[in-house]
């Protein structure tokens, strides 16, 4: 496949590994993207890089960082009689206080999995007697697509399309991470497709204010190894910056039109992250102009969230522990029967470990 | 979840959409978030939207850098 296969030659990977080894530098590096997490696990990169490089996963999976309270709200909306809850497939098995959307669906709730937010607009068009609520989950890559759907619904004059905006922003989460007391990461592998929208400038504070090197990375194993090499080199030279390894897709200025679309519909708001708690300005709420589409303002009863006994997803999401250090991992929490969100999504750190890594078996 | 796949633009269609091809599969995607798309461009597709054009020159340049490292030879002979 064009622009994928060319990057997959074994010789390229071998050469990158050799270049990394020759730097003779060790570091703890964090990837902040669920797709990177999955690629690292599936390609077996972790054991190839040890002991010099310790790859730790951060809060890079939108499914995993969705709080239980927010899931409870989504479930409450789904149980309203005239509501069709449209969602990306990743969300249907995430546990909330009343179970999962899949379980709600088996009890009669109308839960529809869609590929695109525009499919949810089509659902509203085709079901004028129902209210369609789109479960807006995702980072800066996905939020513009939801914003575009909102504009399309408004343009068509649809009065039955709504959004529950649980979107999250990556830079404020990185800021929260580096301010944590026990933070000890030497460099960040930054998410490639979030950066397609954001560009490079949004991350400048990391090298400038905190001395942390960052590399925006593509998604082939060769991209990740190259990003690791660049991070180690910056650490060794003591010259932290934001490097762009994924320049074939990420322009320094990002995708302005996508950002403008996102900002036209949404404004920054505080958001609760699983594992990191409430982070100021890390979420997106619908602007006043679109308040009538906001399903987040509906009066619904959300059950109280109880501590999930033994679940360490919060610590996994901050990189404090590896999935294998959680007492539930591979025992009462597996991809077939997930207890915590990091085991639900295929991009969750726990699921990636369980499915692909020796340690996970 | 931020997965995006490079797809070739086969045809520009009405209502700000394009027909794209990914590994032999054809699909209509929205161009609401991307300016200046032409037939023959490769675009990254995410959730039904074209998000960015793949820059051919940069793709070749990255590949050249990676291949340069490959000339070092493997770690273990």
**Per DSSP, what share of the residues of chain A sits in E-state strands of 2 or more residues?**
15-25%
State the helix count of chain B. Answer: 1
Oligomer: heterodimer
Shape of chain B: elongated
Given as residue ranges, the uncertain stretches of chain A (5+ residues, pLDDT < 50) are: none
Round the mean pLDDT of chain B to the nearest integer and report it: 90
Strand content of chain B: 35-45%
Q: What is the CA-based Rg of chain A, rounded?
A: 20 Å
Radius of gyration of chain B: 16 Å
Largest interface, per-chain counts? A-B, 63 and 40 residues
**Which overall shape of chain A is indicated by the principal axes computed on the Cα atoms?**
globular
Can you walk through the features of this model?
The complex is a heterodimer of chains A (361) and B (77). Chain A is of the alpha/beta class. Chain A contains 15 helices and eleven strands. In chain A, the strands form three sheets. Chain A has a five-stranded parallel sheet. In chain A, strands 4-3-5-6 form a four-stranded parallel sheet, sandwiched between helices. In chain A, helix 6 links the parallel strand 3 (83-87) and strand 4. Chain A is globular, with a radius of gyration of 20 Å. Chain A starts with 9 loop residues before the first helix and ends in a 5-residue tail after the last helix. Chain B is α+β, with helices and mostly antiparallel strands and 77 residues long. Chain B has a five-stranded antiparallel sheet, with no helix packed on it.
